[in-house]
Amino acid sequence: MPFDNSYARLDEKFYQLINPTPVKDPRIIMVNRELAGEMDFPLPETDSELAQMFSGNNPPQGSQPLAQVYAGHQFGNFVPRLGDGRAVLLGEFVNSHGQRYDIQLKGAGQTQYSRNGDGRSPLGPVIREYIVSEAMYRLGIPTTRALAMVSSGEKVFREQELPGAVFTRVASSHIRIGTFEYFASRNDHEGIRTLADYAIERHYPELKEAENPYAAFLGKVCSAQAKLVAGWMRIGFIHGVMNTDNTTISGETIDYGPCAFMDGYDPATVFSSIDSYGRYAYGRQPSIAQWNLAGLAGCLLPLIYDDPEQAKSHAEEIVQGFGAEFRQHYFTEMCSKIGLSANEQGRKLLDALLAIMHEAKADFTQTFHGLSKALSDDRKPVLERFADQDKITVWLDDWEKELARQKIDATTAITTMGRVNPVFIPRNHRIEQAITAAVEQDDFNPAKKLIKILANPYLEQPESSEYMAPPEPEERVYQTFCGT
Ligand code: AMP
Ligand code: MG
């Protein structure tokens, strides 16, 4: 198979060479044939061969498995060494178009970075990552992908005994801000330079010609994160653990642990069971991303200029730029949710709507989706989201007037809005239902059904309309867990 394992050619201080630990009785749950097709990845034919490959029992030929080392700020606290404790990077698959994909198994057994962990994953988090990462991709958000999930036939022990599974993740790379922090905290300048050169070569090769490639690299990562987080905001996604070790330099969403989609609109929404102070609340994601980028900037300083003061002021300027860039993406994306461009009127109407939604805790996805119906003369789907309908009625009038003033007809607005306002999102209670069926009844149909609906999140699917609905009070999920 066409593997070209460039990371394995770096110095050994970047990783530990280690094979996945075989599992007892692997069974394939799902394989993403569409993704395999896009990648040109030749899948083995039988279910048993697929299970052997994607459990790590029989890694693809040409792979060179390793666990990557990294550090990270977890909830603001620096941990000097984390690393792949339950993941093994099989290698880099390169197709005939030269596209390079990291293929990684999560839950593949212990590595030297496991500390006290078992290196395994329960089935629940594997299903969650598969559903949510593929939904994110279909929603148009940069993300790692799901190539396969396999049950291991082994038990894992958490608070209770749970079925084990292995998840196959595909990413443009697994280089994190925390990878830079690992070398920076050791004052390993040579390591940082090697890593930065590697990252530039792999993700932003055009920067090699830049006047100051490392400053330009920082700028690119800031831009990628600004775009990413604006995308999250548009669809109501809450990452849940925006630690620097969960922040890629490619700008792909990574590590779907206690992530969740917001139901009722409230910027303070938090789901993660371990986020007691709301550090990673929905509305704080942009400033946290900038905080993480400042961490990357700190690592890159010695590469940017020899003079520390000069390096610091230049890097600061770049990280400051994240704010304006984020706001530009944010208002463009958010104003398109009401069919307008991000001019003064558009922003004013958006802010007014969000304030009314916040007060009513109106369902984020349904309210925006309902706006298209309102333009087709059916205000009910929007109005029924609000107990008190006075303010929203005034807003709808103002909004329709503004559309008319800007000569934006209903069809045009509905088209704009239809591209950015999902009909379906992976609602937490649906994910929980899918996980429960799989774990308790060995029934993967609910998960498969959810994945199928979410393959077209912007498309009305009347036969599945119950999947649009927010949870009933008794179905509501208040907390999500890492599951590690
Ligand atoms: P996460 O918060 O899930 O990104 O993981 C943080 C760190 O804990 C990473 O270094 C993981 O590799 C490690 N880790 C999480 N779960 C396990 C596990 N079951 N066994 C070993 N290491 C783990
Ligand atoms: Mg992580």
Index terms:
6-stranded antiparallel beta sheet; single chain; binds adenosine monophosphate; two-stranded antiparallel ribbon; 484 residues; binds magnesium ion
Give an overview of the whole structure:
This protein is of the alpha+beta class and 484 residues long. Among the domains are: 7-177, no CATH class; 338-420, no CATH class. Helix content is 44%, strand content 13%. The strands form four sheets. Strands 2, 6, 7, 8, 9 and 10 form a six-stranded antiparallel β-sheet that branches. A two-stranded antiparallel ribbon has the order 1-3. Helix 4 (177-185) runs antiparallel to helix 5 (189-203), helix 6 runs parallel beside helix 8 and helix 14 (428-441) runs antiparallel to helix 15. The chain starts with 14 loop residues before the first strand and ends in a 31-residue tail after the last helix. The mean pLDDT is 97.
The molecules bound to the chains, other than polymers, are:
adenosine monophosphate, magnesium ion
- How far from one another are the termini? 32 Å
Label the structural class.
alpha+beta
> Rough shape?
globular
The low-confidence runs, each spanning 5 or more residues with pLDDT under 50, are none
How are helices and strands ordered from N to C? EEHHEEEEEEHEEHHHEEHHHHHHHHH
Number of helices: 15
Q: The biggest beta sheet, please?
A: 6 strands, antiparallel
Rg, rounded, reads 23 Å
Mean pLDDT: 97
Helical content class: 40-55%
Number of strands: 12
Strand content: 5-15%
